[in-house]
Structure prediction request, 271 residues.
Amino acid sequence: MSVTTRWPHRIVRFQVFAMMILLGWPPAFSWAEPATGGAVSGERLEFNVHWEGVPAGRASLTYETTGDPAQYTIKADLASIGPVDWIYGIRDILTAQGTHQEMGLLTVNYTKVQSKGNKQRHAEYTFQRAGNQVTLQRNDDPPKVIDNVANLSNDPLTAFYQLRRMPNLKNVTEKIQVPVVDSDRWYMAEVTTSPTDKLFTPLGWFQAFPLHPLVQSSELFRQQGNLTVWVTDDARHMPLRVETKVRIGAVTADLIGYVDGRGETRSLHNP
Prediction:
């Protein structure tokens, strides 16, 4: 594969998933403390992704809860557009399902269906909390057991939504430790924050603050420089923008529309 065909799909896939992976298990957060923030059932977020100003992809994130006790489903859908799609079309669908308990969100099942051109990969992670294990079934390969997984580890999507639930997120002054299961292992990622500022987006001005995730390499990450994710300075902590450098240039992913599940809806066509 030439360099020309290799870098576009890495650029698109990383930038959108970076915003999905903002990882969240902070030691400063007590699981017994009620978390009234973050996503609520019915939330839908829409993003545009640009590489050096060129449209490269679109993505959506949805969050739904059902039943009692509550069961959640998080779905991420990514598709390449424009020149990147012509060179190397991408369509990825990630789905996380789990339980909504007093101590937070806990993954039960996580699936990834990733298409590149005419090729497709499938991976399914099943969490066995009692044994601190995760079973990975990738395509038709024999199942692989990931042992000694840290307590309260989650898939990347669930970890991000768990982080958003923190009522004191912007006031955390130390690194937030985040146990994440991705690829074929678990690892401890870290997130730091910076002070609140005004951020101009395609949807207008927002009071927001940046998160800086420091992660190890995985199937989803192809970053070559610092990563910054801006979230709203309110109880929702909605991701507004992802900025990062890649092997060639820089990429920005912007929120262009949302239904927040609380009764507010905005889009480029309905400001």
Q: What stands out?
A: Residues 259 and 265 are 4 Å apart (CA to CA).
